[in-house]
Amino acid sequence: MPTWTLHGDGRTVAPGAVVKPDERLNAGATIAIGLQHVVAMFGATFLVPSITGFPVSTTLLFSGVGTMLFLLITRNKLPSYLGSSFAFIAPVTAATASAGMGSALAGIVAVGVLLAIVGLVVQFAGLGWVNKLMPPVVSGTIVALIGFNLAPVAWQNFQLGAVTATITLASVVLFSVLFRGFLGRISIFLGVIVGYVVALIRGEVDFTAVNKLMEDGQWIGLPPFQFPDFVSPGTWSTIAMFLPVVLVLIAENVGHVRGVATMTDSSVNAQTGRALLADGIATTIAGAFGGSGTTTYGENIGVMAATRVYSTAVYWVAGIFATLLAFSPVVGALFNSIPAGVLGGVTTALYGLIGIIGIKIWVDNQVDLSRPVNQYTGAVALVIAIAGFVIKAPGIELGGIVLGTFAALVIYHLGNLIARWRKTGADDGGPIVPIGQLGGDAPRD
């Protein structure tokens, strides 16, 4: 069983100090901060299954289980919550529409297995090869194109409840600039609450499923499980759409580890391979039983930065509580009642933010966009994704995310080979930097 050293008096954190991963506060403070982490992850974690049609309670279950598994595999040295990843939304949506939910789950499992393999390689060989494969201009492009590729999905939902969607979107933006601290960081979650209230007033919420479960007394019950389909003809062609997600999860996990190491102790970086392995295994298990793929959460880094508590003890509390919460069918049905207008408003902001995170990677690394190889790496890939380019062949269909990722990798690496040969201005890249959460407190004047 994991053990922690009591930090100070167990109640307070001295100015300039932090509660390290192997330390803890007293039981009351640990439980309270753990529940705060659940609140922080909840908004984003329930949105992914709500958008893709996955069972919310199942996703919540494997989010909690995945978090505890992550803590075990990283030997209780890396604080992190594994929530559902937005990088899966586009391929899951496309796969479900073309080949069914089973094929989408097969894609999630494939991503998990591949990520776990990458984690093992990183654990023994280091991160150098990842940095060379995905320098900032490439990693930023891949993250951005995944967000921008989802724009049509946001518009489809927006049109189904334009008034509610507009109010939801406006609320998200308003809360992000109105509040400081924790409330500012959960502006998306607060926007969903406002949108849901508006939808209630406008009569857009259907409580039929919720009422039936309450009448039947089904407050407690097992989440619904679904299983991947690896035998249908369309499955293997849809799996290709999921492969670029691996690159995003690598960047997110590496960024998370580096972010925590910067704020606590550089020795945390030694957990990078284990973090990738743990997220890969958690994603594999989730996909195997009907849950969404997982990733480390920037929202929870925000909570740690605000509280200066990096204790892994609080994440055990969060993982256990999320797991218990998943065993309430009423809770799952309540989240499934969120109408399209609310989802349309919040995803308009959310998908755009995913794109902006990619651009932030360019800015943080001072990517030289005067170099043609960098210009075309981003330009071609983004247009392919935004326009939704598709290549169809017998038994296979490649969409915008796959083609955009392939274009970014080929243009960058082949273009640099030619540029070095011709001495026309190659870009030799650099390491992947932390992908931080957006928003939060601006510096005071």
What would you say about this model in short?
The chain has helices at 27-52, 56-73, 89-99, 101-125, 128-133, 136-149, 151-159, 162-178, 181-185, 187-201, 208-215, 235-263, 272-289, 298-307, 313-325, 329-336, 340-364, 372-387, 400-422; strands at residues 5-6, 23-24, 82-84, 294-296, 391-393, 396-398. The protein is mainly α. It comes from Microbacterium terricola.
Structure report:
By secondary structure, the chain is mainly α. It has one domain (23-355). 67% of the residues lie in helices and 4% in strands. The chain is built from 19 helices and six strands. The protein has helices spanning 27-52, 56-73, 89-99, 101-125, 128-133, 136-149, 151-159, 162-178, 181-185, 187-201, 208-215, 235-263, 272-289, 298-307, 313-325, 329-336, 340-364, 372-387, 400-422; strands at residues 5-6, 23-24, 82-84, 294-296, 391-393, 396-398. Strands 1-2 form a two-stranded parallel sheet. The chain has a two-stranded antiparallel ribbon with strand order 3-4. The longest helix has 29 residues, at 235-263. Keywords: Membrane, Transmembrane, Transmembrane helix, Transport. Pfam families: Xan_ur_permease. The chain crosses the membrane at residues 54-73, 80-99, 105-130, 137-155, 161-179, 186-210, 230-251, 313-335, 341-363, 375-392, 398-415. Its main location: membrane.
